[in-house]
Amino acid sequence: MAHVGNSPAKEDSLAKAMGDTIYGDDLRFANELVGKVIRPPAVPARIKNIDPSKALALPGVHCVLTAKDIPGTNAGRYPEFPVLSEDSVCFGGDAVAILAAETHDLAERAAGLVEIEYESLPGIYAFENIEGEVLIERNADKGDIEAGFARADVIVENTYFAASIDHAFIEPEGGVAWVDERGIVNIRVPTQTVENYQLVAATLNLPASRVRYDCPMMGGAFGGKEHPLLGAFLGLLTMKTGRPVRIVYSREESMAQCSKKHPFLMRYKTGATKDGKLTAVDIDILADAGAYPTNSRGIVLGGLIVSQGPYDVPNLRGRSRAINTNNPFTESMRGVGANQVSFACESQMDEVAKQIGMDPVEFRRRNFIKKGETLIQSQPIPTSTMLPELLEEAQRIFGKKAGPDSSKSRGPWRRGVGYIANIAGYGRPGQEGETYVSIEADGSVNLRCGASDVGAGQTQAYRQIAAEALGVSLEKISVTMANSEITPHCGMTSGSRQTLITGGAAQRGGEELLSRILKGAAELLEAAPEDLEARNGVISVRGAADRSVDYTQAVKKCKEMDIPLFTTGKMATSSHTFEGREVFGDAGGWVDYTFGIHAAEAEVNIETGEVRLLNYASGHDVGQAINPQHVEGQFEGGTMMGIGHGLTEEIKTNQGMLATSEFHSYLIPTAAETPEWDSFYLESGEGLGPYGAKGIGEPCCTAGAAAVACAVSQAIGARITRIPITPDHVLEVLGKLSRD
Predict the structure, then answer these.
(1) 17-122+173-248 CATH fold
(2) How many whole angstroms separate alpha carbon 326 and alpha carbon 338?
(3) What distance in Å separates the CA atoms of residue 375 and residue 92, rounded to the nearest whole number?
């Protein structure tokens, strides 16, 4: 292939390197106002009265808006989640009022003068005790769980805990809104869902056609920029004042209002025979939904579906529940529940292997799931897993750095190696998206995609796919992304789905347009369209390169023949068809799965509990690498996020309010914590995306914490049961520290 499988320089690479990229906070207006969001000091509480009079008395304060000032629907992405709280506040990120003032300092001062009277209410903060309402419960089973345990020679039971973490994107939320000369409300915010303009229009009580969303390049999202609230605040303020309004969150504000990854409490019971075959696994997952249900229904189900790991287990039983509390609301975050269960499942695999006296790598190998074998909800794996091949390559690469010598100790330091396998889904049934593709007279191509570029290279990937499909040079493709006024819909950039959906639509649109171009070229070359091929903007007869025309000639001929030179490419995923799908319907599984092998080498001080990560290797079957450099970047960046979950990151709260509200107390890994790295990928070509690609944005993230936990456990000879792996937890499992 000419473009797919290569890593050409990105159009915006120089701008990013020089700091010239225009992000959400970089578009400025001469007469703009500054917006401010007012949030509660404690939760939960009843809102008894709001008095903005002192703030409004300040010269330069233009308005203070509350729920009563919303002209339309007071709801964000979910009906139970208000744009502005009216009667009560449930978590510390709830918005009670918004205001607009001439300057940032004035807005801050005015916010302090808005008098809000609260009445404290009893709160629920400990989900582990199931004190709050069970918002959702999912149950699944396969085979005969009791018979499976009866056949087991070894049964291992453990409880694991994975803490809540923040998305920790580098770019805090920020944007600007204005009403243009047509009366259109323009909102420019970083968002993973440009279709949020429809929800904001409902809040503003405007037709959707009167609201325009424009998403700039984003400095990370990971699931934390899905909601429409910032856009709604900006729209309300600009409509009220008639002037452009800017809101930019501080890091503290960003973390206070943003969703978090669900903390999971996981109980696993695993049975196996002495010759190393799994017979049964019983799983119970408890999650903290926080203050609002949001997508907890999807997350607890997503975690349950992959809770057996990438292993063939004949007998399974699983239960997954989400509990309502007054903690920060939890939502989609890179991994969709797979990160937490990967840690628990892989820890169990090590423990069972230890009990039967088998090498943990060999134990995994004997139980790898294969194409056609089923998950807990009876869904067969639809494509190749390549797990044996991935393991062989990981051992070949990693064994050179972390082998037998890893068992040697140096004073209080002990080394350990953990190999883990992982599974993560991409694409859901019933999802669809479109792209618009058109050709200019000079043979250049316009590609319009509604997907947001969250910094993972989506724009470049779609350029390469379209160039490949059309047979033109990459330089001929111009891409417009995420502008609701001119780009077709494609749904949220999340769930490792956009290469499948938008990439697939770009491929189909390009192929359809090429078929039209070939009709014009066929007339010029006096050949059948099916005998022609296009490469690098030149169309020729196969096997006769001297008989050729360039795209401009073919385009001119198409115009003479009244052949339309624009089209909409569409990609839609099918519904589930496997037997047993009626348990969860189309919610019960992804359309396909990505598999990988990760290995970590860690060094642990058994006197202080300190952990150092020394070496790491990650590999996946990516189906087809659209851009190998992007794949490598996802492997390293995504895995480091997983490593952060495993070693340093944890959201802590005090009566529902954040105690970790900035990067001094919430510790994301830095370059100093990054290990020596090896990454590799295999290409089965069986992915459901364009040219056989699989989704890879999330799978690499789901494995990091599990690999580190297994390495640390091997080093100290005791099982790590919670992440992050703090020094205190290391000492606790070593029996040197008691947990209160």
Answers:
(1) Aldehyde Oxidoreductase; domain 3 (3.90.1170)
(2) 24
(3) 38
Q: Are 376 and 399 in contact (CB under 8 A)?
A: no
Please state the domain extents for the chain: 17-122+173-248, 264-428+578-733, 432-571
Q: Which DSSP string do the residues of 545-613 spell out, in sequence order?
A: EEEEEEHHHHHHHHHHTT---EEEEEEEPPPP-STTGGGTGGGSS-SEEEEEEEEEEEEEETTT--EEE
Higher model confidence: residue 736 or residue 149?
149
Tokens of 371: 């194409």
Over residues 255-274, the pLDDT tens digits come to: 999 999 999 999 999 999 99
Q: Give the pLDDT confidence score for residue 580 in this predicted structure.
A: 85
Decide which of 3.50.50.60, 3.20.20.70, 3.30.365.10, 1.20.120.530 is the CATH code for 264-428+578-733. 3.30.365.10
d(CA 443, CA 680): 37
Distance CA 376, CA 140 (A): 6
Could you give the CA distance from residue 696 to residue 289 in angstroms, rounded to a whole number? 26
Task: Specify the 3-state DSSP secondary structure of 518.
Answer: helix
Fold for domain 432-571? Aldehyde Oxidoreductase; domain 4 (3.30.365)
Dihedral sign of CA atoms 329, 335, 341, 344 in order:
negative
Is there a cis peptide before residue 564, judged by omega within 30 degrees of 0?
Answer: no
Nearest to 718 by CA among 731, 734, 704: 734
